[in-house]
Amino acid sequence: xxxxxxxxxxxxxxxxxxxxxxxxxxxxxxxxxxxxxxxxxxxxxxxxxxxxxxxxxxxxxxxxxxxxxxxxxxxxxxxxxxxxxxxxxxxxxxxxxxxxxxxxxxxxxxxxxxxxxxxxxxxxxxxxxxxxxxxxxxxxxxxxxxxxxxxxxxxxxxxxxxxxxxxxxxxxxxxxxxxxxxxxxxxxxxxx
Length: 192
Ligand code: IMP
Ligand code: MG
Known about the structure:
- By secondary structure, this protein is of the alpha/beta class.
- The protein is about 25% helix and about 30% strand.
- It has four helices and nine strands.
- It has helices at about 25-40, 55-65, 115-125, 185-190, and strands spanning about 15-20, 45-50, 70-80, 90, 105-110, 130-140, 150-155, 160-165, 180.
- Strands 4-3-2-5-6-7 form a six-stranded mixed sheet, sandwiched between helices. The chain has a three-stranded antiparallel sheet with strand order 1-9-8.
- Helix 1 packs across helix 2.
């Protein structure tokens, strides 16, 4: 992948093995996604529903690229599991925005097995939106268990655990400006 040879910045060298997607490349791609979304929803006022916490960085960049009226709301979905093996999904907190009859764009950091999106779509559909589309920064297609397709995808990534630009490992690394792959020993130690 382009940029894969970019060196890992000093402070992260011990923990991050390599950069998968450099910040500059993310920025360019997010602008393209925003332009596409803005064209598709021209004349509408969509509601961006973002899943916490992983989307904060992506959402902040994406929404500033959308030159149109919109609303933003958040959902938190937790899984009873160890964070890597998907357990039972539970949504906590409700939307503040009434999405009945509205165009919803569901924003997530990464589409992995698809279980989270599948669960959230069912929750949102019960509230009667006019439409729901999915926007995911990353897509790990090879891991899909539930058939969910994103309408807007930033990058397809291989089956390895990635962190940065919002994505965490045990709540760390969300603040990396790039998407990177952790060193094996960090990953195996499980964030201790
Ligand atoms: P899914 O329900 O299996 O599609 O999982 C989606 C959620 O799992 C994402 O919103 C992430 O929080 C988390 N996740 C899956 N893969 C990764 C990864 O490689 N790095 C960090 N988080 C991940
Ligand atoms: Mg997450």
